[in-house]
Amino acid sequence: MTGVRVWMSGVDRQQSVFWRLRSRVLFVRRWWNWRVRWGYLEFVPRVHIVGIVVGWFVALGAVLPQSELHVYDMEPLAALPIGVLVYALYAGGRLVHEAGHAVAGVSRGLSLERVEFGALRAAADWPDGSLAAAPASARRLVAVSGSAAQFVLGTALLALAANLGPTWSPFVWEIVVLGGLVNVCGLFNLLPVWRSDGEYLFGWAWRVRPAWVGALPGTIAMYLLAFGTAAAQFPHGWTAAMMAQLLKSPSGLAVVAFASALVAWIIDRWVFPHRETAVGNESRA
Q1: pTM (global) more than 0.85
Q2: How many angstroms separate the Cα of 172 from the Cα of each of 102, 175, 177, 228, 283?
Q3: What is the rounded radius of gyration, in angstroms, for the C-alpha atoms of the chain?
Q4: What is the C-alpha separation between 72 and 57, in angstroms, rounded?
Q5: Residue 223 vs residues 56, 59, 186, 220: alpha-carbon distances, Å
Q6: Strand runs (DSSP E) across the chain, as ranges?
Q7: Residue 153 above 90 pLDDT?
Q8: Which is nearest to 233 in space by CA: 278, 153, 179?
Q9: Which is more confident, 16 or 50?
Q10: What is the rounded CA–CA span in Å between residue 88 and residue 16?
C-alpha cells in the first residue's frame, strides 16, 4: 500500500470542459479533474460529491411538504445526512463488490492494477489479458466473489436494522433496510448476460443487440424486488409512496421500464464503452 497521490491525467485535461477557458479558472479546472490514488483504490472526488447531492435530492422528496412523496417531517438541511447515508449505502455496496473481486483475484495469484471507484462505474482492473488467461476456476472465483461480498454486506445491514432499527428515526431505518435489500439483490449480477459477472461464472452469456437490452430483465427485477420488499415493511414510508406513484397506472410502469433502459444504456455506452468479453482481452471484473 502506498500513500495518497493526487493528480490530473493528460486525457482528463484534454476532455475537461474548462480546458479552453482562460487562466483565471485554472484552479477550478484542476480541482474538477483531481484524481486520487490511495493504495489500489483510485477515484475522482467530484463524482462522489455529485452523488451525495443526488442522494440529498432523493431525501428531500420525502421531507418537502410540496412533494407527492412527502411522508416524513424534517427540515431540508436536516435531510442532508440522510442523503449522505443514501449515497454511502449505494456506493459502499459497489466498493465492497469490487473489493471482493480484487481479494479473490489476488488470492489466486493475479496481479491487481487498481480498483476504479466512480459514481456509476466501479471496476477491479487487471493487466490486459491476465484475467482471460487465468484458469477457469480462478475466473469463476473472481466472478462470484464480488456479488458474494455485496450479499454479505446487505445481510449485515439487514441484521443491524432488525436489531437497532426501532431505536433510529423512521427515515434512517427505512433507508438502511432498503440499502441492505439492494445489496442483497446484487446477486442478480450473476445472471448470465453480457458484461455481467455471470458471463465469467457460467462461461457464456445471453447476447442480444443492442447489448444493454440483455441487462434489462435483471435490473428491473433487482430493484422491483428490493423496493417492493422495503415498501411492504414500511407501508407508510418513502419507498411505499414512491412505489404507489410509479405503479398506480400503466404510465408508471412505463416510467420504470424507461428508467431501467436508460440506466442500462448509459452504463453500456459511457461506463463500460470498450469492455471486452471474458474470452477476449478482458482486464476488468
Answers
A1: no
A2: 31, 5, 9, 18, 38
A3: 20
A4: 14
A5: 20, 18, 10, 6
A6: 4-7, 35-38, 41-43, 114-117, 122-125
A7: yes
A8: 179
A9: 50
A10: 27
